[in-house]
Amino acid sequence: MKTRALRLLAGAALLLPMQAVHASDNASGDPASPEVVAMQHAMITLDTHLDTPESVDRPGWSIMDWHDVRQDYSQVDLPRMKAGQFDGGFWAIFTPQGPIDTASYAKVRDFAVMRGMSIRLMVASHPDQFELALKADDAARIHAKGKRIVYMSIENAYPLGEDVSMLKLFYKMGVRETGFAHFMNNQFADSSTDPNGPKWHGLSPLGEKLLAEANKLGMIIDGSHSSDEVLDQLIAKSTTPVVLSHSGCKAIYDHPRNVDDDRLRALAAKGGVIQINSYGGYLRASKPNPERLKAMRALYSDMRDNADMTAAQQEALNARRREIDIKYPETDKPTFDDFMKHLLHALKVVGPDHVGIGMDWDGGGGVVGLEDVSGLPKITAALLKAGYTREDVTKIWGSNILRVMRQVEAAAAPEASD
To answer: Can you tell me the distance from the alpha carbon of 207 to that of 88, in angstroms, rounded to the nearest whole number?
Structure first.
C-alpha cells in the first residue's frame, strides 16, 4: 500500500480551481544565523505530523542516511534532523480511506498495526539515536540525551473498523494522538474534503464513542482533515483541549482544509493548539498545470498497482518522477513566505500559547525555501524577525503541544491504560 502516492494523488484531485498568486521577494526566507541555530538546538523542536514512517518502510531506504529531497523526495532522516536541530515529534500511522466494509477493515487494521510496529522497530534498531516517548515529560529527558523524540499518532481512524476498543491496542503500542477522518468521510466522522459532502454532519454515533474512548485513554484529539462541523463538536465535547496537528488559516486561503478565525478562537478558548502545515495546496492558489497532473496521476497509478516494490522498482519510479519535474516543472509552487503568512496570521488571532508547527513532512509538505527538515531554523529566524520572543518561539516549537499532552494525561481515567 503506497500511502504517499495515494495521499498526493487524492490531494491533487481535491484542490479547488485556482488562479496564480505571486510570492514576495523574500520567498525563501532569511538564512538562520549561528545564534539562531544555537537557540534552536537548545529548545525542544517538535512537529506534530510526520509521515516519515512511509519512507522507513521503503525497501533499501535508511533513516540513518542523508537523502536528497530532489532525488528520492523524502524530507526527514537522522542526518537532516540533526542539521535542522529537529528533535522529532509525532510519527504517523496513516492509512488512506477505503471501503466501509468488514473485509476492508480487517485489511487496513493489519496494515496499521504493521506500520506502528515499523515505527517501534526503527527506534529499537537505533537506541542510541531514537527513543519512544509516551508522556509529555519524556521529551525533555530524551532531548537532554541528544536523541530524537518519537511520539506516535494515528492520522485516520479508519483502521479501527467499528470497534473503538481497538484504540487501546494502539495506545499500548505507544500511540498518543488520534485523528478521525482523512480525505473522505468514514465510519467515525465527516471529512473536510469529501466531494460528496457531509454524511454525518459532524461525528457519527461511533465517532462520539471514539472521542470518549480517546479521552478516557489519554490520547490527544486531532481535528485536522475533519470537517468544520466535526471540529465544532470535538471542541464542545472533548474533555481535553483539541489539537489541529497540521492545518492552516482560512483567512489566508479559503480552502476546506483550513480553519476560520472564529473556530481558531474557539479552539484556543478551550486550551487547544493549531499546528501550521506547509502542504502547498492548502497555502495559496497556484497556476493549474494539467500536463504535470496527468503525468503524476499515471506515475501514482503505477505506484499504487505495485504495492510491494523492490528497491530497484522504487528507484525506477523516482527516476520517472525526476523526468516529470524536468519536463513539467512546478513553476508556481508555494514558498516559505506563503507558509509564514499562515503561521503569523494564527499567531495574530490566538497568540503564541495556541500555535505550533505540523509541516506534513513526507506527506506532501515542504515549500520553496524549506524543502526538508534541514532548514527548520529559518522558521525561528522569521519568528524572531517578526518580533516574537525566545519564550514565544519555545512555546511554538514544542511547549504548547507538550502542555496539551500534560492536560490530556491528567484527565485520563486511571484504569484506562491498564
So the answer is: 29
Q: Is residue 14 part of a domain?
A: yes
Percent of the chain as helix, strand, coil, to the nearest 5: 45, 15, 40
Q: How far apart are CA 378 and CA 393, in angstroms?
A: 12
The answer to whether position 292 is within a domain reads no
Q: Let me know if residue 20 belongs to a domain.
A: yes
Domain count along the chain: 1
| 314 assigned to some structural domain | no
Residues 362, 67 contacting (CB under 8 angstroms): no
This prediction's pTM: 0.92
> Residue 30 phi/psi, 5° resolution?
-80, 145
Cα gap 90→342, rounded to integer Å: 21
Dihedrals phi, psi of 131, to nearest 5 degrees: -145, 135
pLDDT at 242: 98
CA distances from 198 to 84, 180, 202, 207 (A): 40, 14, 8, 14
Residues 248/258, Cβ–Cβ less than 8 Å: yes
Q: Is 256 left (phi over 0), alpha (psi -120 to 50) or beta?
A: alpha
Cβ neighbourhood burial of 313 (10 Å; 0-12, 13-18, 19+): middle
DSSP letter (8 states) at residue 247: E
What CATH number corresponds to the domain at position 258? 3.20.20.140
How far is 180 from 160, CA to CA, in rounded Å?
Answer: 10
Find the domain containing 25 and state its range: 3-287+332-411
pLDDT digits 0-9 by tens, 330-364: 888 999 999 999 999 999 999 999 999 999 999 99
The answer to whether 32 touches 381, Cβ cutoff 8 Å, is yes
For residue 324, give every residue at least 6 positions away whose Cβ sits within 8 Å of its Cβ, in sequence order, or none: 292, 295, 296, 299
List pLDDT tens digits, range 136-154. Answer: 999 999 999 999 999 999 9
Decide: 152 and 222 in contact? Cβ < 8 Å.
Answer: no
